[in-house]
TrEMBL record:
Organism name: Rubrobacter tropicus
Protein name: DEAD/DEAH box helicase
Regions annotated as coiled coil: 805-832
Renumbered residue ranges of the record's region Disordered: 1-27
Domain spans labelled Helicase ATP-binding: 52-314
GO MF term list: ATP binding; helicase activity; hydrolase activity, acting on acid anhydrides, in phosphorus-containing anhydrides; nucleic acid binding
Keyword list, A-Z: ATP-binding, Coiled coil, Helicase, Hydrolase, Nucleotide-binding
SMART domains per UniProt: DEXDc (SM00487), HELICc2 (SM00491)
Amino acid sequence: MTEQRPRRSGFRRVGASTTRPPDPETLFKDLRKAPGIQYLWSHQADILREYDERYPNKRDVALELPTGTGKTLIGLLIAEYRRRKFDERALYLCPTRQLAWQVGEHARTYGIEARVLLPREYEGLNDFHLGNAVGVSTYSAIFNTNPRIEEPKTVVLDDAHAAEDYVASLWSVSISRNEMGPLYRRCLRLLEPEMEEAFVEGMLDDDASPAVRARVDMLPHPRFSERAAEIRGLLDEGLDERTAERYPWSMIRGHLHACCLFVSWQGLLLRPLVPPTLTHPPFESANQRVYMSATLGEGGELERIIGVPRIERIPAPKGWEKQGSGRRLFLFPNLSMGGEDVEEATALAATESGRTLALTPTASAASVAKERFSSRGITVLSSGDVGESLEPFTSRTNVALVLANRYDGIDLPDEACRLLVMDGLPAATNLQERFLLTRLGADSLLRDRLRTRFTQGAGRCSRNDSDFAVVLAVGQRLFDFCAKRENRSGMHPELQAELEYGIENSYDLDPEGLLELVRLFREQGEEADTVDQNIRDLREKAQKIPDPVAGVLMEAAPKEVSFAYDLWRKDYAEALEKARGVSDSLSGGRETAAYRAWWHYLAGSAAWMAGQEQEDQDLLAKARDLFGRAARASRSVSWFAELSREVDPGARPSSSDVRTARACESVFQTLSGLGFHGRRFDRKVAELNDLIGKDDSSSFERGLEMLGSLLGFESSRRSDEDGAPDGVWLLGDGLAVALEAKSDETPENAISINTVRQAGTHSNWVGNNCHVATDAEVITVLASPRTTIKENAAQNAGDLYYVRIDELRDLAERLEATLRRIRSLTSDAEREAAVEVIREELDRAALLPTPLLGFLMRTPLRTLPLSG
């Protein structure tokens, strides 16, 4: 797509005076606009006056402009005003090329001189550099190692929250398993001595289970520093001119001390905690940066995303406190349906609607969604198909546009699209966020971010007052998030009302019932009028309640960003003080415990680096103390405690504490997957009781596998190999329980020598076939209905243990009761609080790893009564 510019003839007058507009409003009146554009809306004028009176000299300013408020015009007017008033080169940034062309077209209708500047041609770049026109481009145009657009003095960042990955990518090296498999494996092998052996082996396993593929961990700074030189050499060699990752590598290779290394089965991510944008001249040199977003959030996420310590905020226009834009009917199929029915309902709605926008958090989730749509005969489009224009999507029917991590920056008003599928919780969109959410459990940090993404995503297909769309919120975790009142109470009252109405109308639906509701709403008849009025009534009762944790996080954000810059320039003493300031501001309360632990760890890392650099034992002692505080504040990251031992070998963490942390975190993950609301949990425990209650070996072994998983172990069933256990329960790489089950035997006879010999090989089998450390504790347990043992069997029983079949069934019943109690106590709790409740309740029921092992090992097999 190329701009058409009129040809000039004759000489141009030089030195002609240019009128400098006194304010943005006056500028708007003087512009030669398209006939249909005559006036500013009152709220647009109010915002421009507020900006002109209070913010023209502020370096960083954010505007919250909800959907339908005309934020493009406001952003372009500010850019054009500063271009004319202050002779500044003004640049308007968009997330995508398609949006850049769209903004360029808007500028033309508003009478604003603008040039769309996109690679490779960058046509019109000279006009921008001369200050004759506003430049319109994408974030990637300046956030790269060799930007063609130089030193803009005004930068307007549209859809600022959508900029996260575009901005951070300049300092983020991603080593994908699929695209750079050999380099990925070489990196893992290099890091293997510094990481848990079982974790690394799982990452290297091409046939890893879904549970292993879902894991993410981080190499702590003290361990990473031991391998930094080797990593630098390996990446210097591996990231050559054939890979785009060489560009961000050139930005961070000299700053590895300030970077975090995250590890997952899908790939590695090496990046600083916060993107150091103020070290990048095209961004730092601006006199003013203006950030625009439909939802700014209240927890300082914009500062963390952009890498700016403090951003002034201009609040949303008056009158938008209650009213939203358009009407949405939310439906939650997971509330009343299982997996296959949810897929069927989604496919029926998509076929009925003709055009469907599907938003997923990650590329892997998008791949799954694409397969589901295409298997139903629906044409699937991706981001590459709409890079320049949405026309390939809006001109078709029976089509689904599937996008990963695109919750802002795409507009589909009116008949362009009436069905939005939000497929999955908009979380863990990159490995750093995934670590903070799933490994650390810092829900309080991400809650505001998730609210913001959800709000932005839900508005993609309802873009004006008369617009309407159906929103299918698919996935148990997304439903659980929306079901919690404390999550909804921080949202706009209109959205609160729509969600409450949607939840109540999602009970007792089957696919056909859901389709009927979609049809009734799309017809916009009397039924839709009733829906609208009901939501309006709910809206009047709703209030947006400030999230107290978000306020604490907003206060901490400037210190967090400053810490990242201190670390970048190796000012470890200042970094330590900033990190301690953050942890102090997060003090008290369960909701911030996990994030407080993270900042204790970061403070400890800064102290450790300072101590190493200065050879200062007092700083190393301080690091040890801070790592210990991190371990006490959060039980979910086992290496917090291990670091204190590594800094001081005399301080050894309890293996019991490490096992407890792992088990509680695993139970939380399992319950999250099943849902803290809805029927999936009931179906799961009913299946467990049915399987473990049967005597046939196949059913009972499947029951054992489920029992181990629900107890917090990584559980697997018997292998087809001879001599393999009937089940294995793993907890990290240091503990394995091998199970030999004889549920199908008659209780009258005695345990035989053959059974003992069979069980006696399991310890070696686990060591050879499972991801366990060489010094792992492997316990072999024989489960049998028999209560006596033959003498020759007892003489060969060695270290084998015994438990009766009915005792395992009792254990399953006790676990079910405990998990039900946990669900009732944590249905509305944040992750940090939920994990603590899990620990307390499992402890009360003697189901934590230590008492559970005591139960499994209380009867050595050799001590059974000998048969007559």
